[in-house]
Amino acid sequence: MTATAKDHWHPVLDSQVLKDKPVGVKVWNSEIVLFRTAGGKVSALEDRCPHRSMRLSKGWVENDKIVCPYHLWKYDGEGKGQSPCNPQMKPRVQRYDVTERYGAVWVKPAESNAQMPEMEVEGYHYVGLDTGIMYAPFELVVDNFIEIEHSPTNHGVFAFDAQGITQVVPKVETVGDSIHVIYEGDQRNIPWYSPTQYFMPQNTRLIIDFMAHFRPVHFIYNMRWQDPKTQELKPHRIREFAFLTPVSEEETHIHLFFFSTLNLFSPQSFSPLRKLVSSRFLKMAHDEFNLDKNIVEEVARTDKRTDLKGLQLGKFDRVLRETRRLISSAYHQGPLEQQAPPEPVQLKATGTTGAQD
Ligand code: FES
Ligand SMILES: [Fe+2]
User: Fold this and answer.
1) Which value, in Å, is the radius of gyration of the alpha carbons in the chain?
2) ipTM above threshold 0.90
3) Could you tell me which residues belong to the region Disordered (predicted)?
């Protein structure tokens, strides 16, 4: 068995988008149709009718079956079909495992025994899910999520101060098949009149401590703020789970799940205010995402190569080589069973490589 993108659970759609009409999604060029039965159950099948290759996502749902719009053959959630004009036939469509968690629809191939990634959120309240698309190769999107040097120029709030970034020393360590990264620096100043101040305490040190996992590729960011004089941590923390789903060589989908320690987001809090603040937070997060999207897509238009050859890499970019290795291991090659986990490697935290490999 070889490791490919298809071996992992990936979030593919905001659950709220899947209503009574089928929706087509893609994971690494595999086209999948999602549909919700009248009873609310979600199913996932290959998005191609085995009769004459019509796209099933162009069809509709009748009770617990999806109907192909070309000749009205129907398929249940297991992929078992029936043909009105050929009742003796037993057509079949490949099915996928599917589940709904944390406000998203997730899929994996039925033959894979991958574990669903767990989100450890004790002490946190769910704020919401933000989704987006970057028209860029997977590796270029991953690069943007793992380095922070762009934050003063390209972010409004989840960011370090422009001067402060020069003082940030990235701490990067490979742990098995994951990477642990810590960035610490001055929180960027936000105008006093901005409600965003409520989430990002001012005159503090921002500590972004995160793990990058690769089966599937996702980042677990822990954001904390520290009083620079007393070293005391502010009570408010944000935890963000960023899942990157490779769609094709030129398209990557992103699902961002946000959690906060603020009691305001507790299900017990005053609901209208919670909804208002959650939507404000998600709007802010989406604006931040769009800033990244613009820059990553611009890079992709300039150069789609992902191999780092000829690039002059700085201290924040050292980690990119490691991400290439781990993406390759988890998504492009195998066999999984024969791979021994690598020894933890301490990467140097400072200096520039200036390497042109
Ligand atoms: S192509 Fe789907 S029923 Fe004919
Ligand atoms: Fe960014």
Assistant:
1) 22
2) yes
3) 332-357
Alpha helices in 51-150 (DSSP H): 138-146
How does strand 30-36 pair with strand 345-346? Answer: unpaired
State the Cα–Cα distance between residues 325 and 329, nearest whole angstrom. 6
Residues with Cβ within 8 Å of 340's Cβ and at least 6 positions away in sequence, in order, are none
| Tens digits of residue pLDDT in 17-48 | 999 999 999 998 899 999 999 899 999 999 99
Architecture of domain 125-346: Alpha-Beta Complex (3.90)
Using the mean position of ligand 1's atoms as its centre, give its distance from the Cα of residue 74 in Å.
Answer: 9
Query: For 317-327, what is each residue's pLDDT tens digit?
Result: 988 999 999 99
Q: Is CATH 1.20.1080.10 correct for 5-109?
A: no
Residue 293, token pair as written in the block: 């999207």
Of all protein residues, the one whose alpha carbon is nearest to atom 1 of ligand 1 is 52
Q: Which atom of ligand 1 lies closest to the CA of 73?
A: 3
Name the one residue in this structure whose structure tokens are 């690039």: 311
From the CA of 332, how far away is ligand 2's center (Å)?
Answer: 25
Please tell me the residue having the least CA distance from ligand 1 atom 4: 71
114 C-alpha vs ligand 2 centroid, how far in Å? 29
Domain positions in the chain are: 5-109, 125-346
